[in-house]
Specification:
Butyryl-Coa Dehydrogenase, subunit A, domain 1, binds flavin-adenine dinucleotide, Butyryl-CoA Dehydrogenase, subunit A, domain 2, four-stranded antiparallel β-sheet, Butyryl-CoA Dehydrogenase, subunit A, domain 3, alpha+beta, 15% strand
Length: 388
């Protein structure tokens, strides 16, 4: 693996950092206090700001209207956004993967014509709906169904913990079209929130508070059959494949939160004086900073490897799962240590560290818990699965 950034990647990092310092970081504190979660008009306003940098269409090839960026460059963008604002990062990761990227690879020409341009311009917000009240890790047991009725599907079921739920216009819903066929009866159908009335209940949570996370109820929701993504019966495999990119990017997000915590701790350690000297001079403080920096770098390198392999289209379940569990757990450890460097101020709501810590901890369950990620790594190494 080539782990040195190219000159172009260094420029992407520098311009994303400058954009975040100028446009995003100044609004985060106020928005996180005021909105739980962001209302739709504000969500669209902030997400549209990210479009010119490539956050929404970066991974979509140019012939689909995207930027055709390499995956490591996209990871660099994601880390810089996460260093600025965790909530917006999760919203963007899910929106870009469940919307433009999935549409480009799985959408019909008609679906692409209708949804791809507004998804790429940030006018349409997207969600991927897999989890349910009774089903998290065991995706094959989902209870949501679609029954054919002439040219329509009638969808019934409840999806839980749906990122962007409530502000989304577009839900890619994983469900059964034929339960008797087991995993071969799983399909994915686009539900357009503007064409079908959905019951939404926001689920308040520990961190990522500006990011909408909702229960979405489909009650006899009537959807045209042409909204089927791919073909019937390939939805399970497609869902598992689709989850790989956001999985690796959640690890990347962990490195961004960890970096934000390091930057805050370093600044504080150089200013705060105790016993007549800056606390940066104490060896135990230096030990904490050193461990934080090394762990974050290790996580970042794992994430670069995973995203590089994703970009090459190589099999990389092991790398994406490793990047996710290691990156998110490093974020929790590093944010916690950074809080120690700040003493009591570490837990103060007047400093951003407590938010970084809450956001980092909230990242552990999505896209497969970290236990499931370990089982995927185990399966790839041992050739036997502990959970299927
Ligand atoms: C912030 C956030 C955003 C989310 N966004 C989305 C979204 O956009 N779309 C979506 O569909 N879902 C989303 N989710 C849901 C997420 O994917 C699920 O939480 C996750 O898959 C785990 O499911 P669960 O929470 O029901 O836990 P469960 O599956 O019930 O697991 C409970 C515990 O049992 C363990 N466990 C389960 N099975 C096994 C096993 N075989 N071996 C060992 N341990 C096991 C788990 O690791 C965990 O510790 C989101 C969740 C969060 C917190």
């Amino acid at each position: 693996m080539d782990f040195m950034l190219t000159e172009e990647q260094k420029m992407i990092k520098a311009s994303a950092r400058a954009f975040m310092e100028g446009e995003i970081i100044p609004i985060v504190g106020e928005y996180e206090q005021k909105y739980r979660p962001l209302p739709k008009e504000i969500a669209i306003e902030v997400m549209k700001k990210l479009v010119p940098l490539g956050y929404i269409g970066g991974l979509v090839p140019e012939d689909g209207g995207g930027e055709g960026m390499d995956y490591v460059s996209y990871a660099i963008l994601t880390e810089e956004l996460a260093r600025a604002w965790g909530s917006l990062t999760v919203m963007t990761i899910v929106d870009a993967a469940a919307g433009p990227l999935d549409l480009y690879y799985s959408g019909s020409e008609e679906q692409k014509a209708k949804y791809l341009p507004p998804a790429l311009s940030g006018d349409l917000i997207c969600s991927g709906a897999i989890s349910e009240p009774n089903v998290g890790s065991g995706t094959r047991d989902i209870e949501t169904t679609a029954k054919v009725d002439g040219d329509y599907y009638i969808i019934n079921g409840t999806k839980e913990w749906i990122t962007n739920g409530g502000v989304s216009d577009f839900y890619s819903v994983t469900l059964y079209t034929d339960r008797a066929k087991g995993a071969q009866g799983v399909s994915r159908i686009i539900v357009d929130a503007n064409e079908c009335k959905l019951a939404i209940r926001e689920l308040p949570k520990l961190g990522l508070r500006c990011c909408p996370t909702a229960e979405v109820v489909f009650d006899n929701c009537r959807v045209p059959r042409k909204n089927l993504l791919d073909q019937e019966g390939v939805g399970y495999e497609a869902t598992m494949k689709l989850l790989l990119t956001p999985r690796a990017l959640l690890g990347v997000m962990g490195t961004g939160l960890a970096q934000a915590a390091i930057d805050e701790a370093v600044k504080y350690a150089l200013e705060r004086k105790q016993f007549g000297r800056i606390i940066a001079k104490f060896q135990l403080v230096q030990q904490m900073i050193a461990e934080m920096v090394v762990e974050t770098k290790a996580a970042r390198l794992l994430c670069y490897e995973a995203t590089q392999l994703l970009g090459k289209g190589e099999r990389c379940f092991k790398e994406c799962s490793g990047a996710k569990f290691y990156g998110t757990e490093v974020a929790v450890r590093v944010c916690s240590k950074a809080m120690e460097v700040l003493g009591a101020y570490g837990i103060s709501e007047e400093y951003p560290l407590e938010r970084y810590f809450r956001d980092a901890r909230t990242l552990l369950p999505p896209d497969g818990t970290n236990q499931i990620q370990r089982l995927i790594v185990g399966r790839e190494v041992l050739g036997v699965s502990a959970f299927v």
